[in-house]
Structure formats: structure tokens, C-alpha cells
Specification:
alpha/beta; Rossmann fold; 5-stranded parallel beta sheet; 9 helices; 5 strands; about 15% strand; globular
Length: about 210
Amino acid sequence: MCVIWRRQVECEERDRHAVENRVRDAQIPRVKTLEDFDYSKTPMVPAGRIRELAEGGYIDRSEPVVLIGDSGTGKTHLATGLCLAACRQKRRVRFTTAAGLVNELIEAKQQNQVRRVMAKWQKYELIVVDELGYVPLAEIGAEFLFQVVSDRAERAALIVTTNLPFSEWTSVFPNPRLCKALLDRVTDRAHILDTGKESYRFMRTKEGRQKTR
């Protein structure tokens, strides 16, 4: 019994280290779990759909997830929580902002390393591209982002968070044809969730002020 118990402990320890390594490699800027998400503050978000996504079937099927809503409505929290859930399943995951991804590829171009960097991004089972739409992209940046998304289409999962409805993506991508092609790939078989317009952070600040009166 002692030997069995020791092996079980060793197995659990290996699993814990494996998950920790996945979380570290994902480069999540701030760890937030789905368990901590307050659905009562964002009634538009379907808790059942999020729990279903957390099981990881969309990753196995290489399906995109698009979280659309105004700033402060929980998009990044949900994307981070799904990212962490994938790490717990020991999947290879990477979290980045749209600007961060584009800047990395522009730097790679300057160093003639684009092919190597692109290959690195293709190896992840899931990537999260946060804050798409917050900063307009130059044409070269838009082309790089399109290439990353296109390379993953029907091959690997992708989560995108954006504050813009699809009709306004042309304000971020200067080339209309490229924008249309990107939308086709991001929305194909996608799970599209609207987190609403009322900022959770604003409501929290407002409630805090009322309590201090």
C-alpha cells in the first residue's frame, strides 16, 4: 500500500508540475479562473456555454472562439479562464495581445526570422489573441496577423477578444479584402459570444463609491 501511495503522490506531483509549466509557457499576464468570473454582473454571458467550452472540445475540433463586447465586460477574463482550463488539460497554449503578436512578427521580419517565429506559433494547440481592435494595424501588421489566423484555420483553435462588431473591423485592417478574408476565417464554425456593453469595472467602481457615502 505504501508503494502504491507513493507512486500516486509522485504521479500527482508530475501532473502539477506539468500544468505549472503549461501556465508559465502560456505567458498569461494575469491569471484569472472561470470559477472567479461573476456571471451575475454580466448576464449576457451564458455560463453553460462557457463551461462547455472549458471542457476543451472546441480545441479538439480546431474551432475559433470570438468574444465581442465593450471594454470592461469580461472578455479578457473569460479568454484567460479558457486559456487556463486548457493548460490544466496539459495542452500547449499561448496568450498574447494583437499588438504584441504583430510587433513580435515585425521584429522577426527585421531579423529575417519570420519563418521560424511563424512555425513557433503554429505549434500551439490554442492561442489567445486579446484586444483586437484597440489599436489600428499598419498593412504589414495586418498581413502578419492574417497569416497567423489563416495558418490555424481548421487546424488549431483560436480565441479572439475584440471591442468592435464585425462591421467595424475595417477600421483596424486597412485592406478591405484582407479584412473580409480574415473575418471568413475567424468566424468559420466559431463560437461567438457577446459580453455586452456595460462595464463590470465601472459598475464595481460605482458600487464602491456608493458604499463610501
